[in-house]
Amino acid sequence: QVQLVESGGGPVQAGGSLRLSCAASGVTYNMYCMAWFRQVGRNERERVAGIDSSGIVTYTDSVKGRFTVSQDNAKNYLYLTMSSLKPADSAMYYCAVEGGGSCYGLTAEEDFEHWGQGTRVTVSS
Prior knowledge:
It is globular and about 40 Å long. Helix content is 0%, strand content 50%. It is an all-beta fold. The strands form 2 sheets. Strands 2, 4, 5, 6, 9, 10 and 11 form a 7-stranded mixed β-sheet that branches. The chain starts with a strand and ends with a strand.
């Protein structure tokens, strides 16, 4: 059974930094895509970053150069290091995982089977 547990969210001032963590267990895929999404209110979840089992990373344009997605060597943790934060980055952040080996084309909530419960990031101006 896949379990994903996010942590690290909280309040931060604009220009500041945060590192989100996602503890992953029960992930038995040899090939996968792990991703960070964010959601504001009831809007659609937006994929902000992804990393696949080959280590290929992708980012949405609005976070390029500011956010970095990474994993630990054992691949038990997924991280999102966020810097130069803006009020527009305020959202609930979720990690997700899907088997298949590539994040290419997996941009929507329905593309991912497994989700964490989310961690909230609030950026004040």
